[in-house]
Sequence to fold (117 residues):
Amino acid sequence: MKEIEQIYFNDFGVAFHWRKNNEVLKDRIQMVFKETGFYLSANEIREFAEIIDQTCRETGCADCCHRARCHKFLLKTPLHAVDLAVSKSELMQIKDLVEGTLFTIELLDYLNFACKN
Fold:
């Protein structure tokens, strides 16, 4: 697709920048997963990563008889009016998508700005 510049993907979703008039719009990142799309700034994605980390710490499955095969629970998002119903498996896939996206944009920023001679 010429309308997007892909940043990161996994089996659960994709993150990309939109293109408009052959220019990559880098101020926001489109993340699509679980039939849902979020159009977030890099700071909002960092906030989402922190929310996910906190949620992972709070959903300890070690002592639970379901062992991560439980029903869904609510995952907060950087958009305070929106929560997602996810399973533990989906949470891990969203975590990978968010962390992979952050890693890629930070690496590209480093390569494009800090490494210029």
